[in-house]
Amino acid sequence: MNEVKRIGVLTSGGDAPGMNAAVRAVVRTAIANGIECVGIRRGWQGLINSDFVKLTSISVGHILSRGGTILFTARSDDFMTESGRQKAVATCKMLGLNAIVAIGGDGTFRGALELSRLGIPVVGIPATIDNDVGCTNYTIGFDTACNTAIECIDKLRDTMQSHERCSVVEVMGRNAGFLALYVGIAVGATAVLVPEHEVDFQRDVVERIQDSRLAGNTHFMIVVAEGAGSAVEIGKKLHEAIGIEPRVTVLGHLQRGGSPTGRDRETATRMGYYAVKALAEGRGNRIIATQEGGIVEIPIEEALQRTKKLQMDRYVIMETMQIGGIR
User: Fold this and answer.
1) Helical H runs in the chain?
2) What is the CATH number of the domain that holds 184?
3) In terms of domains, do 93 and 26 share one?
4) Which of 64, 163, 206, 301 has a C-alpha 20 to 30 A away from that of 25?
5) Average pLDDT, the chain
6) Is pLDDT above 50 for 205?
7) What is the pLDDT of residues 18-76, one digit of tens each?
8) Per-residue pLDDT tens for 147-170?
9) CATH number of the domain to which 114 belongs
């Protein structure tokens, strides 16, 4: 690999709190190593359209605590075509970019792999609130999303308790239940529904509410990952099964926003630092990941083949905490 003199950095896919902290770390680490940094706005589509901004140490000041991403983000159908990728390569050549740091999830990394095969070294940084990237223990944004959901549910519980009601709360997680299970344990949910665990509605929801009521509880909290079913439909089924009228709350994109937690800021900063270090030392086509508390580099091809299973021991712990029916 030739000496790296100028790199691009982009954020792609769904936004996640902490992306800005990663951008800041990439820029400042690059500058410290004598490397210029260009921000690519709107992800891979921005690389195709040559949508860029010069980044300096000053321009990334005061973004550490900001949610979202100052580079904006988008999904790109054009980048999935050969002609679109060739336009992206042309932009890299025109701007004199020797490499790219791509911040996002598996979809972003699949794009990174395709670009790397065309001769542009890419290093990926995992950022998604779902924490479902198989090659890493942790993804930027997960902790913030969990804390946002926990805060909202704690407030809902206050009013549910006052009115002796049942609340069904839908959190994000189309294909993974990491967020729902973590939040469910943290708020003492009556039941948690996740895509990885086949739902027996009578056993997993109805009977738990009945047991909780017999134990003296008068309010109930059901947390459901969006991939495990619609909170609205679950509410209807509960009404039909036991006559209660649940209040349904879909947290939606609220979970993506807000100032990142300390964990997300610190993890994003470390990942950004090691991403630039890898490129500066001639190692491209890598994903920066966390393993056993440390930072590791994994080849993109290998990283995309890895999967992550929900820790079912946590599901057992959640069920155990419901013994007696009282939060």
Assistant:
1) 19-32, 43-49, 82-95, 106-116, 142-163, 178-187, 201, 207-214, 231-242, 262-280, 300-305, 312-320
2) 3.40.50.460
3) yes
4) 301
5) 94
6) yes
7) 999 999 999 999 999 999 999 999 999 999 999 999 999 999 999 999 999 999 998 89
8) 999 999 999 988 888 777 899 999
9) 3.40.50.450
Length of the chain: 327
pTM, whole model, 2 decimals?
0.95
Is 1 part of any domain? no
Domain that holds residue 185: 143-256
Question: What is the full DSSP assignment across 35-86?
Answer: -EEEEETTHHHHHHHT-EEEE-TTTTTT-TT--S-TT-----SGGGSHHHHH
Same domain, yes or no: 225 and 276: no
Q: Are residues 174 and 102 in the same domain?
A: no
- 36-40 vs 52-55, strand pairing mode: antiparallel
- Integer Cα distance of 219 and 221 in angstroms: 7
**Model confidence pLDDT, tens digit, residues 188-203:** 999 999 999 998 999 9
Quote the number of domains for the chain. Answer: 2
168 neighbors 320 (Cβ within 8 angstroms):
no
Give the residue numbers annotated as catalytic, written as ranges: 130
CA angle 25, 29, 31 (to 5 degrees): 120
Q: What is the pLDDT of residue 1?
A: 42
Instruction: Report yes or no on 77 lying in a domain.
Output: yes
φ, ψ for residue 191, nearest 5 deg: -155, 150
Residue 147 main-chain phi, psi, to 5 deg: -65, -35
* Structure tokens belonging to residue 181: 């299970």
61 plus 154 within the same structural domain: no
Least confident stretch, 1-5, 60-64, 135-139, 174-178? 1-5
Secondary structure (3-state) at 323: coil
220 Cβ contact partners less than 8 Å away, ≥ 6 residues apart? 160, 165, 166, 167, 190, 209, 212, 213
- The answer on 269 and 129 residing in a single domain is yes
* 235 and 100 part of one domain: no
What is residue 161's predicted lDDT score, i.e. its pLDDT? 80
Q: Based on the domain organization, do 33 and 132 belong to the same domain?
A: yes
* 177 in a structural domain: yes
Residue at 316 is within a domain: no
